UniProtKB/TrEMBL annotation:
<dbReference type="InterPro" id="IPR003789">
    <property type="entry name" value="Asn/Gln_tRNA_amidoTrase-B-like"/>
</dbReference>
<dbReference type="InterPro" id="IPR017958">
    <property type="entry name" value="Gln-tRNA_amidoTrfase_suB_CS"/>
</dbReference>
<dbReference type="GO" id="GO:0050567">
    <property type="term" value="F:glutaminyl-tRNA synthase (glutamine-hydrolyzing) activity"/>
</dbReference>
<keyword id="KW-0547">Nucleotide-binding</keyword>
<dbReference type="GO" id="GO:0005524">
    <property type="term" value="F:ATP binding"/>
</dbReference>
<keyword id="KW-0436">Ligase</keyword>
<keyword id="KW-0808">Transferase</keyword>
<comment type="function">
    <text>Allows the formation of correctly charged Asn-tRNA(Asn) or Gln-tRNA(Gln) through the transamidation of misacylated Asp-tRNA(Asn) or Glu-tRNA(Gln) in organisms which lack either or both of asparaginyl-tRNA or glutaminyl-tRNA synthetases. The reaction takes place in the presence of glutamine and ATP through an activated phospho-Asp-tRNA(Asn) or phospho-Glu-tRNA(Gln).</text>
</comment>
<dbReference type="InterPro" id="IPR017959">
    <property type="entry name" value="Asn/Gln-tRNA_amidoTrfase_suB/E"/>
</dbReference>
<protein>
    <recommendedName>
        <fullName>Aspartyl/glutamyl-tRNA(Asn/Gln) amidotransferase subunit B</fullName>
        <ecNumber>6.3.5.-</ecNumber>
    </recommendedName>
</protein>
<keyword id="KW-0067">ATP-binding</keyword>
<dbReference type="InterPro" id="IPR023168">
    <property type="entry name" value="GatB_Yqey_C_2"/>
</dbReference>
<dbReference type="GO" id="GO:0050566">
    <property type="term" value="F:asparaginyl-tRNA synthase (glutamine-hydrolyzing) activity"/>
</dbReference>
<dbReference type="InterPro" id="IPR006075">
    <property type="entry name" value="Asn/Gln-tRNA_Trfase_suB/E_cat"/>
</dbReference>
<dbReference type="GO" id="GO:0016740">
    <property type="term" value="F:transferase activity"/>
</dbReference>
<dbReference type="GO" id="GO:0070681">
    <property type="term" value="P:glutaminyl-tRNAGln biosynthesis via transamidation"/>
</dbReference>
<dbReference type="InterPro" id="IPR014746">
    <property type="entry name" value="Gln_synth/guanido_kin_cat_dom"/>
</dbReference>
Length: 476
């Protein structure tokens, strides 16, 4: 490529704490009435003093450990000063000079994307505009509920080389957030938000454009689309020899374009200084190790273990470990069925037709023992695989035992050889021309007679026996 994109991400992760970062207000405010989860601390009333949440530090350390970061024993909060209608204090409490963690990485398809820093901070409020398009809004409302909600900001190095890779990084990050329980990672609820910085290098001349920040991307798809658009826009300007402005642009969903919002701020524009109301945070090494010990098996580790322990391919292991709840349910089922390959096949072809990988599998009506019953009936030849699929669906919906469904509906395979032979003889008497054609070499007609038996028995005849008996009778 003559023009190569250079992309870095700034990601805000809402931590799954019970309370806000510096007060006792609830942190899960997504569905609450506007301005119903606020207090003097999170709205910045004079004289109110912030008290940091220990749970916020625990989740921050856990996230840093999952992302292979160096966790610092000393960190500190600072004030980031700026004015915005949904920031009542006129500043944000964040970590600028001494962040919680630095120098990490996340592997995406064997490529290490470096993480410069992870720091803790509080969220601002939310503006609700009178129109879906900001430029057309006549007025806006301010909801302070999000003020003080704890965030971990993850800043990557500019190691991402395509919009698709940016999307893959975010998808992998969300998987880790959910595995660790640090965050829900729900972009549609604002629990995972991403700003992207993109510049473009002309590889022939070595000239690099100014960096542009892109905001307001609330899905993985929109992150990819916004960066694709911005890459094309920057390349177009570079080809014309025009300057690429150093600015912040917003993704406009209605026009599928980015729109200029403001010139890009520098760090000194925020006039950072140490937060005077919160002393420095000092962790002992023992405390950090105690939190790191809570780190569960992560997606890459589980993926490799599933391949090795259950003899699965990359595709099967990838899907089965896509969420921790799906992986856990699979392992519970395998423990009972003792048949990883068959269990994997039924998960991929049947279970995931009715349940998403994000489902609460404890709430499903189908249980591990149902898989065992179904496999046993197939292995013993009591039901065909086609019948088993129908039984599975009914078990999934009703929670009834597969064996009970088979008994109540009379779905057992017909293995009575005399009955099968009788049906075949009647078919041969009815279609003597087909019999003669078969004997003259048109062996594909075997399927005609086998199909007739299956129709007569409503699909319950043993296909192997039907084929065997049909060949014998037609050969006579």
């Amino acid at each position: 490529m003559k023009f190569k994109p250079v992309i870095g991400l700034e990601i805000h992760v809402q931590l799954n704490t019970k309370t806000k970062a510096f007060c006792s207000c609830p942190s899960d405010v997504f569905e609450l009435e506007p301005n119903s989860a606020i207090c003097p601390i999170c709205t910045g009333q004079p004289g109110a003093l912030p008290v940091p949440s220990e749970e916020m530090f625990e989740y921050g350390i856990l996230l840093a450990a999952a992302l292979n970061c160096k966790i610092h024993e000393y960190s500190r909060f600072d004030r980031k000063n700026y004015f915005y209608p949904d920031l009542p204090k006129g500043y944000q409490i964040t970590q600028f000079f001494y962040p919680l963690a630095t120098d990490g990485y996340l592997k995406v398809k064997e490529k290490r994307i470096r993480i410069r820093r992870i720091h803790l901070e509080e969220d601002a409020g939310k503006l609700i505009h009178s129109s879906e398009t900001i430029t057309e809004a006549s007025h806006s409302f301010v909801d302070m509920n999000r003020c003080g909600v704890p965030l971990a900001e993850i800043v990557t190095e500019p190691d991402i080389s395509s919009p698709q890779e940016a999307r893959e990084f975010l998808e992998k990050l969300r998987q880790i957030l959910r595995y660790t329980g640090v965050s829900t990672g729900d972009m549609e609820k604002g629990a995972l938000r991403c700003d992207a910085n993109i510049s473009v290098i002309d590889t022939e001349t070595g000239i690099q454009s100014n960096k542009v920040e892109v905001k307001n991307m609330n899905s993985f798809k929109f992150v990819e689309k916004a960066l694709e658009y911005e890459y094309r826009r920057i390349v177009s300007l570079m080809k014309k020899g025009e300057e690429v402005k150093k600015e912040t642009r917003g993704w406009d969903l209605s026009s599928k374009t980015t729109i200029s919002m403001r010139s890009k701020e520098e760090a000194n524009d925020y006039r950072y200084f140490p937060e005077p109301d919160i002393p420095p945070v000092i962790f002992s090494r023992d405390y950090i190790e105690k939190i790191k010990a809570k780190l569960p098996e992560l997606p890459d580790e589980k993926f490799e273990r599933f391949k090795k322990a259950y003899k699965l391919g990359d595709y099967e292991a990838g899907i089965l470990t896509s969420t921790v709840q799906l992986a856990d349910f699979f392992e519970r089922c395998v423990k009972i069925t003792n048949n990883p390959k068959e269990t994997s096949n039924w998960f991929l072809t049947e279970l995931l037709r009715f349940a998403s990988p994000e489902a609460d599998f404890d709430e499903l009506k189908i249980k591990p023992e149902h898989f065992k019953e179904l496999f046993e009936m197939i292995e013993k030849g009591e039901i065909s695989r086609n019948i088993a699929k129908n039984v599975f669906e009914e078990t999934f919906v009703s929670g009834k035992s597969p064996r009970k469904i088979v008994e109540e509906k009379g779905l057992k395979i017909v293995g009575d050889e005399s009955l099968i032979e009788d049906i075949l003889k009647k078919l041969m008497e009815k279609y003597p021309d087909k019999v003669q054609e078969y004997k003259n070499g048109k062996t594909g007609l075997l399927g005609f007679f086998v199909g007739g038996v299956m129709r007569e028995t409503k699909g319950k005849a043993d296909p192997r026996k039907v084929n065997e008996i049909a060949r014998r009778l037609l050969a006579d």
